[in-house]
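Progress against Task 2.4 (sequence-to-structure conversion) is shown through the following example record, which the project officer requested during the mid-term review.
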Amino acid sequence: MSKERARRRAVREAELARERAVRRRRVARREHRRRLVRRLTPQWRRRSAGRLARHSRAERAGIVLLTLASVILIWSLVDDLALRLVLIVLLLLVLPAIVVIALDRRT
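Structure tokens generated for the chain above:
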């Protein structure tokens, strides 16, 4: 009886050892793949330190879309080409001040 239990325990332990080895190989392969993917993917900086970093993505999109809408409005409402160009250049020169006034977070 005791020999039979010892044999069954040995079989059980051998099976557990095989399962552990399979699990170890699987985890090692997964970690190797993760390291390889991390090494091959480009690293993106999360936040830049420039002027546009102060604004969220939605704010930057709003700035661009409103500027384009203003340019289209100037282009469609003003007939004289020289005046169109002057107004667009003036808009682009004044745009940073408008952004600071409209989106300043310090107050």
